[in-house]
Amino acid sequence: MATMETVSALVLGGGVGGIVAAHRLRKLLPAGHRVVLVERETRHVFAPSLLWMMTGDRSLASISRPLARLERKGIEVVFGEIEEIDPVERSARVDGRIFKAEFVVVALGADFAPDLVPGLAAAGSTFFTPTGAQAVRAGLERFRGGRLVLLTAAPAYKCPAAPYEAAMLLDHWLKRRRLRHRTEIALYAAEPGPMGVAGPEVSAGVRAMVEEKGIGYYPEHQVVEVDAAARLLKFSNRGDTGYDLLIYVPPMRSPAVVRNAGLTAESGWVAVDRNSLATRFERVFAVGDITSIPLKLGKPLPKAGVFAHAEAEVVARNIAREATGRGASVAFDGHGECFVETGGGRAGFGSGDFYAEPLPQVTLHPPTWRWHMGKVLFEKSWLWRWF
């Protein structure tokens, strides 16, 4: 028979949003309030650095930390598989233990689903996971030239800049190994342009960065099947194309436990109030990639760690205010930023207001070594600050 435990705040997921929410809740709530974080993985991986892991510039150990370290900060960490979520009762069952909470924060992110494209998983590798980044690295070490294809298998994915950064980092990697002149780099994208949600100027700017390096860019190519044996990509209404090495960004879907709980809307993601991140269930909030926040231009807010972080700060402060009666309410304002690695120790930087109407107001700063060093320092500070 399952045991029942009562907690003040239950945070589901140990990614960026979950870690920030748990930290802030532990700091803001009185000592007698239990803050529990549930995660199936034992280590937190700093996802932006997987690009550097792909090129051999980082190891898994250098970009990850044990989640158990959070317990030193007073956060109870429960490792296990979430079997069921009941948003009405504000409870979750984890490996036979039931946690019933006064407040719930759902931060379970998005699941990768390469199976949605027949043949994709067997044909290539993705740098979006540690295992995938290691596989990409191994493939690069065997590569001696030919046609290297990067593919976004769906129009929406985590970190809109990532595939474009990957293409430019691989351009530099190949130059260092004197293979660039023997390699064609082609980027096939399901979307109509890079980082379209940031507005037409940013999109054009990123495309120019990519094409200036001699990288072929082919937008609006939706892959429908991959023939691994023939090394052939098949697109809807766009014909076929071959490859010698395939690196892909997989499709995504919300975790089954979230869908089964009735938390998702027609979009397939959790609908939240764009300012408070509240769901339709009382005292149940959702942050990060699991959510879908529509913008005026017809696209959703990007799935990126910078937004998960800011949303978690808002949710934690508002929960603490409701629980203690102290402090002022706060709102998520849609501001975000990201680095855009271009290779050779340089990076661009985009930032702005994604809630601006009718279009987001985002500025893209050209690549310099300073922005690259900014990303390096951010990586180090994140892992130090939260662990």
Could you give a short description of this structure?
The protein is α/β, with parallel strands linked by helices and 387 residues long. It is 27% helix and 30% strand.
Description:
The protein is an alpha/beta fold and 387 residues long. The chain has two domains: 3-110 and 254-324, FAD/NAD(P)-binding domain; 113-252, FAD/NAD(P)-binding domain (3-Layer(bba) Sandwich), CATH 3.50.50. It is built from nine helices and 23 strands. It has helices spanning 16-28, 50-54, 120-123, 130-142, 162-176, 200-211, 256-260, 305-324, 369-386; strands at residues 3-12, 35-39, 43-45, 64-66, 76-79, 82-86, 91-94, 97-106, 111-112, 146-152, 183-189, 216-218, 223-227, 232-235, 239-242, 245-249, 252-253, 270-271, 284-286, 291-292, 335-343, 346-353, 361-368. The strands form seven sheets. Strands 1, 2, 5, 6, 7, 8 and 19 form a seven-stranded mixed beta sheet that branches. Strands 12-11-10-16 form a four-stranded parallel beta sheet, with helices on one face. α1 packs parallel to α8 (305-324). The longest helix is centred in the last third of the chain and has 20 residues, at 305-324.
